[in-house]
Amino acid sequence: MFVDVILPVPLDGSFTYSVPPSAENQVEVGKRVLVPFGRKTYVGVINEKRKDEVGKDLSPEKIKPILQILDPAPILFGSQFQLWRWIADYYMSPIGEVYKAALPSGLKAEDGYKPKTETYIRLTPQFRNEQALHIAFDMLQRAPKQQAAFSAFLDFTADVTRDELLNQGHTLPTLTALVKRGLLETYEQEVGRLNHGGNPHLDRLKPLSPIQQNAYNQILVSFLGKNVTLLHGVTSSGKTEIYIHLIRQALEKKQQVLYLLPEIALTVQIMERLQRVFGDRLGIYHSKYSDAERVEIWQKQLSDHPYDVILGARSAVFLPFRHLGLVIIDEEHESSYKQQDPAPRYHARSVAIMLAQMQKAKVLLGTATPSLETYYNAKTGKYGLVELFQRYKGVELPEIQVVDIKDLQHRKMMNGPFSPLLLCKVREALERGEQAILFQNRRGYAPMIECKQCGWVPHCQHCDVSLTLHRNLNQLTCHYCGNTYQVPTECPNCGCTQLQTRGYGTEKIEAEVHEIFPEARIARMDLDTTRSRQAYERIITDFSAGRTNLLIGTQMISKGLDFDRVSVVGILNADTMLNYPDFRAYEHAFMMMAQVSGRAGRKDKRGLVILQTKSPDLPLIGQVIRNNYTAFYRSQIVERQQFRYPPYYRLVYVYLKHRQDAVVEAAGTEMGTRLRRWFFGRVLGPDKPGISKVKSLSIRKIVLKFEPGLNMAEVRKYLALAQQQMLQDKRYSTLQIYFDIDPL
After folding, report:
1. Crossing angle of helices 239-252/210-225, nearest 10°?
2. pLDDT by residue (tens digit) across 293-331?
3. What is the rounded distance in angstroms from the CA atom of residue 359 to the CA atom of residue 382?
4. What is the dihedral of CA 478, 481, 484, 485, to 10 degrees?
5. Which of 395, 394, 489 is nearest to 451 (CA)?
6. What is the C-alpha to C-alpha distance for residues 426 and 517, in angstroms, rounded to an integer?
7. Which end of the chain is less crowded, N or C, counting CB atoms within 10 A of the terminal residue's CB?
8. What is the pLDDT of residues 342-360, one digit of tens each?
9. Are the beta carbons of 104 and 295 closer than 8 angstroms?
């Protein structure tokens, strides 16, 4: 017998191994096996098994045997293999890379996953009767601490953990002495790491308002004819409550539900709402959970009693599902759904739609600001469309006041990042016992430091970027490779000791706000303050409970968080989003500003947004003020068609990387020439991207634009051929070439 095995290595296809006769009855597709590969051993997954048949290019005596079968039952369903193959093919990524992305680390390692155990204490067999217990107490008469601990142990009606006795004030040496005397013995018992949400309480479902009920009914009708439906609902219109009612309906039909969120931070609030209704039928899955927790969730999904509802970030699309009936993709417009590095560079929205198609499930896309591609698909009839343009309980959308900071700076009325109007409105909100949010989409203290005399700016030694100052850590950091540097005391160029900061990051905003509002209880939410699960949970919980009243943050705070007391939101500089060299810049800017604005004025009061910009007359700013998504869409879609961008054309980016700039320059030119032979004028470049060196690798980028109707499977075949031909050239043996399909 032979098996084909997928290995967690960046190579295409699977690898053939022989099966020892003693193991033939244990071999199944989807089980993990330990196999030799080169000089190492790897944990692979059996992709196929066959009897007495080897590939044409293989002779049986050269085939290595598998070393060990690691599972009593398969850890992958057939539908997951089907999804893996689709991802590998569509995103032009080796299936070994898909395997690495899909499985938790504990399922890929040789030593594997270790169950969590706890030390329990019980009586030794010879002391499990009343007469023996009397003897035990006699033995302990001269050891009062041991006697007290033994007595405390007997007060428990069931076996007790060692920690429970230690928590009562008894010491470890005392318990160890009782074990040595032969009175007690310890044993290890496996305990789950998963949170237990308690019993489900479907009676806690809130009734839908008439407008929500109408949207809910429209979604159900849409699902009769469409597999994918877009729910376009303004911020605070009650989309989550509609999701909860749809989940209940799916559970009544014995179906499972996958609920995707773009940002881990969002799971805190949504989890509480879902757990309140669905209790222990809800499982949470994302990268901030420990690997052991993720393994336990994976194994539970394989069991006969899986979670009915999975709430997770993009990696949750890889979990095993037996009866998937509904996929909810909340904030579907978010770029966080796209995996950038490493491969596979997949978009979780597209993968989830494909997963649902394979399992005959329905997909609901929800957002206040749809991506242009999704809205185009809805308007052209590919997807269903349900619209919800009124906030829950009739609360008005926030008032947006635009401040021309260019004019204020010219008139010397604004030195720092805050306009007088913004400071006034924040102060008034805090005095009324309300909350405020300040949005600055840049972390750190300052994006750069500069010599006042000669203009020298410190750059990363490995990347083509300036270094960001993090004053709390007293270091300069590269946000691309993570390298850190000491803050210089003088300019190496001219010796000047006057080094000044340029620009504002969230850390600097926080420092200045502390000076202006010393009485405020301030929190900062960015990548630097939310590195652990507990950190972001604490920030959100404290702000929700009112323990903090002024939140400063990056794009994290724009993503669907629901705070009742926020009356003022300040967008400190809209221009950093607008002046970005990318065809999606206005789309991302509109979404970000609309989403951040939506945090203001939730329950019984209209909120206020202060939008600071140097371009107040820009049409986009007017569209944000009026929350006019339709006008924004119309203006952008015309440009997209005119300049051959999505949704009218498909994009593929080709990246080439090498340590020597001359090598990557030559390779880029040659690759461009090869591609033009097949794709003609659809090829743009090669060019240096905006950041042309990262982690000591020089970069070139080629852009391909493909019109609708082109056979993309054939396109991918030619791209792979061009890649293969390039890498066979000895000059380019260490060249990296990869593809980004449907880039963001």
Report:
1. 50
2. 899 999 999 999 999 999 999 999 999 999 999 999 999
3. 19
4. -70
5. 489
6. 9
7. N
8. 999 999 999 999 999 999 9
9. yes
The CA-based dihedral angle spanning residues 527, 531, 535, 541, taken in that order and rounded to the nearest 10 degrees: 50
Rounded to 5 degrees, what are φ and ψ at 524?
-120, 135
Length of the chain measured in residues: 744
Provide CB contacts within 8 A for 33, sequence distance 6+.
3, 5, 17, 43, 44, 45, 46, 66, 67, 68, 69, 70
- Only one residue has tokens 């302990």, namely 140
Q: Which of 26, 166, 191, 210 minimizes the C-alpha distance to 116? A: 191
Closest CA to 446 of 477, 419, 422, 420: 477
Cα–Cα distance measured from residue 339 to residue 313, given in angstroms and rounded to the nearest whole number: 11
CA distance 391 to 396: 7
Q: Which residues contact 550 (CB under 8 A, 6 or more apart)?
A: 426, 430, 435, 436, 437, 438, 513, 517, 520, 521, 522, 523
Q: Judge whether 563 and 600 are in contact, CB under 8 Å.
A: no
Q: Which sign, positive or negative, has the C-alpha torsion 316, 317, 321, 323? A: positive
- Cα–Cα distances in Å, from 83 out to 39, 48, 270, 675? 30, 15, 27, 29
Where b means 16+ CB within 10 Å and e means fewer, 668-689 reads: bebbbebbeeebeebbebbebb
Residue identified by tokens 């939410």 is 525
Q: What is the mean pLDDT of residues 209-214?
A: 95
Which residue from 333, 566, 353 is spatially nearest to 439, judged by alpha carbons? 566
Question: Residue 98 in contact with residue 65, Cβ under 8 Å?
Answer: no
Q: Residues 274-286: what's their mean pLDDT?
A: 91
Gap between the Cα atoms of 205 and 565, Å rounded: 23
Q: Cα separation of 176 and 179, whole Å? A: 5
Interhelix angle for 712-728 vs 78-90, to 10°? 70
Residue 352's H or E segment, with its range, is: helix 348-358
Q: Taking a C-beta distance cutoff of 8 angstroms, is the pair 738, 655 a contact?
A: yes
Q: 15-31 as b/e, with b when 16 or more CB fall inside 10 Å? A: bbbbbeeebeeebebbb
User: What HEC string does 496-559 produce?
Assistant: CCCEEEECCCHHHHHHHHHHHCCCCCEEEECCCCCCCHHHHHHHHHHHHHCCCCEEEECHHHHC
DSSP 8-state assignment for residue 466: B
Sheet holding 117-123, edge to edge: 160-161, 117-123, 184-190
Which of these, 34, 204, 173, lies nearest to 112 by C-alpha position? 34
The 3-state DSSP class for residue 468 equals strand
Maximal CA-CA distance, the chain: 96
Question: How far is Cα 101 from Cα 346, in angstroms, rounded to an integer?
Answer: 10
| Sign of the Cα pseudo-torsion (409, 413, 415, 416, in order) | negative
Hey, is 605 helix, strand or coil? Answer: coil
Give CA angle at 315 (102, 356), nearest 5°: 90
* 328: nearest Cα among 248, 225, 268, 387: 248
At 183, the amino acid letter reads L
The rounded mean pLDDT for the chain is 92
Tens of pLDDT, residues 98-131: 999 999 988 988 676 666 677 889 999 999 898 9
CA 547 – CA 521 distance, rounded (Å): 7
- Give the C-alpha separation, 432 to 570, whole Å: 17
**Strand ranges (E), 151-296:** 160-161, 184-190, 228-233, 256-260, 282-285
CA atoms of 614 and 575, how far apart (whole Å): 7
Q: Nearest to residue 403, comparing CAs of 413, 392, 393, 390?
A: 413
**Contact criterion met (CB below 8 Å) for 627 and 591:** no
Looking up tokens 């950091």 gives 477
